[in-house]
């Protein structure tokens, strides 16, 4: 329940009109800037909140320094009696989390558009030496359902810091979005990119990859389990898009995309390539030029060639000559031996007919070690 004591209070030149939301240690109010008549949001945290208060102050300073079209800016911040406050633009539409839960899955086109915006914001923060450490759907605000803002830099820290634990010794972050290496290693750009991968997965499937009854269970799943392939949940997810998502969720940080922008570009390229029209049988189509990283190799007709590399025609001629020589030898022997020739038990039978003269040639029974070899080569 929101604190009623702050409603209708004027702090500086901001008049608080009503409450919007309440979190664990913070409250958000709708206010009006009496100088500009702009509607703004005021996030309030008690100064007695200890470490949370320190993080809130750090968030306000970071957001006031990060000037990017897709990072929610801090218009103002300060203290009021027992409270610390931060003023930001009011985004009426709500969060990406609300968008997914209330309106369903995003199309690949919509997901690519939002990913490009958030990846650009995260890339900018990384280039300024800051890690977000809490990328998640509820920290993405949407204007008109399309224009995205990355917000809530409460866990922001310098990339150069070589620790990832709070002073009380606990990992911080949202378990559903935490990279597996954070259990032992410091946060890094790669762990932010992993969280961005979870965000993409959620946009196209409606769920995060791993859930559990408690944070420990969820973190263990990130460490040891493989996510269900997105295409098994949403058939619209194409193979190339799925490969991009699963690469972003690799357990090994070195196997992920190196920058948020590289991830966004790969996702956009994958879904655009997968969306190319398929040629229709009997109609000649001109395929557009594909990106350099994607090669189309024409299928070659398979030709069976003997293992030795000798052309097949040579084997055929050789086999025919062997058979001819054996027939000549048999006929010659028949003249000499005459009727005294014993019967031969066949191991292979070859019947040759000719349709040109409609006459059947004599059926010859051959017993020779070469016959099976010749037949095998055919």
Automatic annotation (TrEMBL):
- Give the EC number(s) under which this enzyme is classified: 2.7.11.1
Which SUPFAM superfamilies does the entry mention?
Protein kinase-like (PK-like)
Residue stretches spanning the membrane = 313-331
What SMART domains does its record include?
S_TKc
Q: Which residues form the Protein kinase domain?
A: 14-271
Q: Which GO terms describe its molecular function?
A: ATP binding; protein serine/threonine kinase activity
Alphabetical UniProt keywords: ATP-binding, Kinase, Membrane, Nucleotide-binding, Serine/threonine-protein kinase, Transferase, Transmembrane, Transmembrane helix
Enzyme type, top EC level = transferase
InterPro entries linked to this entry: Kinase-like_dom_sf, Prot_kinase_dom, Ser/Thr_kinase_AS
Going by the entry's taxonomy, the superkingdom of the source organism is recorded as: Bacteria
Record carries keyword Transmembrane helix: yes
Can you name this protein? non-specific serine/threonine protein kinase
Upper lineage is: Bacteria, Bacillati, Chloroflexota, Ktedonobacteria, Ktedonobacterales
